[in-house]
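Tutorial, part two.
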Amino acid sequence: MAQNGTTENRGTKGIAALPLPQPVKVQEVRHTKIFIDNEWHTSSSGRTFPTFNPATGHKICDVEEADKEDVDRAVKAAKAAEQRGSPWRRMDASSRGRLLHKLADLMERDRLLLATLETLDTGKPFLQSFFIDLDGSIKTLRYYAGWADKIHGRSLPVGELSFNWCWDTWTAWNFPLLMFMWKMAPALSCGNTVVIKPAEQTPLTALHVGALIKEAGFPPGVVNILPGFGPTAGAAIASHMDVDKVAFTGSTEVGQLIKEASAKSNLKRVTLELGGKNPCIVFADCDLQLAVEETQKGAFYNQGQCCTAASRVFVEESIYEEFVHRSVENVKKIVIGDPMDPQTSHGPQISQQHFDKIMDLIESGKEEGARLEYGGAAVGENRLFIQPTIFSGVKDQMRIAKEEIFGPVQCIFSFKRQQEAIERANRSQYGLVSAIFTRSMDRALSVSAALETGTVWINCYNALHAQTPFGGYKMSGNGRELGEYALAEYSEVKAVTIKLSETL
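Running the prediction step on this input gives:
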C-alpha cells in the first residue's frame, strides 16, 4: 500500500510477515434497508432484491429496492438538511472535519467486518479488501477531513457563509466502499448533502456505513443511501430537478445516459469516471522483471475488474519474446481460490453475465489469431472463476485490443519505434491511465507528455493516492476525483462585488 495514499497495489507481498487479519463470521447481515434521514426504511414499492456471493453463488440476503418515490423522499431529506438554519448548515467547517474523522474512526473499529462484507459481496480476496480497499477508504476520509476548514477562494468558509447543494452519486460494484468514499468525502468536506445509490450487485458495505454515519453524529438527511437499480432509482436521480450534481463511476454507455438526462432536466453538473483501455509502454532499457510484475498487477488485480486495468501492453521488439516468457512464468504464481483464504490472490468475476462477456472476448482473441500463451479457461464447474489469461501477437484491430474486457486478460503487443508506440497507445476512444517502463527519465517525461490519458505512471502501476487527482480524457469521462482538484467538483464559485462609498 502507498504510505500516504489510497490504493497503490503492491499485492500482498510482505504482508505474510505480519499477523494476518481474519474475516469475521457473518451470521446475518444487519443493514439491508433504505437509509433516509438517519432512519431505516422499507421501500415504497415493497420490493426487495437479492445480493449474491459470487464465489459460491449463494444468496447472502435480500435488500430493499429503492425506486423513484424513494429517491424523491431522499432528495427532500437532503434538501431540508442543507437549508439555512439547519444543524448541518449552522455547523462550522472544522466541526464537519471532526465528523469525517469520527466516521473514519468507526470504520477503523469495524474494519474486519467491512472487509468481510466487501469480500462476500464482490468476491475479491479478503486481504485485498482489508489492506487496500479499507485502508484507502479510511485515508480518503481523513484527507478530506483535513480540508474541511481550509477550502477558500478569496474568503474563508465559516458557518453559514459556505455554499451547499444537494448532490447524488452512483458507486461502482468493483470497488463499492472505496468509490463511496472517493465521492462522499470531498462532498461532505465542502458542506454538501448527499444521496448515494450503491451498485445493485454490491450494496452491503454502503449500508453498513449508513449506520456508522448516524453513530458518528451527522445530522439527519446529510447522507442518504438508496440500494436499487439504474433504470429506476438511478434514472430518477439523473433526471431529478432538485439534484444539483451527479457523480458516477461505471460504464461509458451509462455515463452518456446520465449526461443526456442532465441536459433534459435541470442541466445539473455531472462528473464521470468511466471505462478504460489502458496502454503500458515497455522500453528495452527498463527493469524487465519490474515491468512484468507491475503490468500483471495492473492486468489481473481484482480479477481484471478495474477501469485502470493494464489491458494493452506495448513491448519493444528487442525484448518482446523475453517479456512474454517472463509474463507466463510470473502469472503461474497467482493463487485462485476461496476469497476468504489469506493465500488467495485471485477470486471470481462478479456475475454470470459478466463471466460470459469475458469468455466471449477470450474466444474472439483466439479466433482472430492472437496467441493464447496462458489461461483462457474457466476454473471449476458452475462457478465464476476465470484463469488469468495472456495473449501475445495481438493486433490493434482485434476485439480484445479495442474493447474494454473488464476481466483477467492481458494483451501483449510489440513495437519498433517510440513514436509508433505513442500513436498506437493513443489510438483509442478511452484515455484514463497509462504507464511507461524505462530507465531514461528524459524518455519517460517526453512520452508521458504525449500520452492522452489523465494519469501516467512511470515504472509503477495502480499508484493511486488520496492527494493525487484521478480522472480521464476522451470517453473515459470528465472531472477529477481525489486531491484538491476534487473539491472544485463539489463547490460553486460566486462573485460578490461591493461598490464602496466615495466618502469612505
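Residues 1-16, 158-164 have pLDDT under 50 and may be disordered. In part three we will examine how such features are distributed along the chain.
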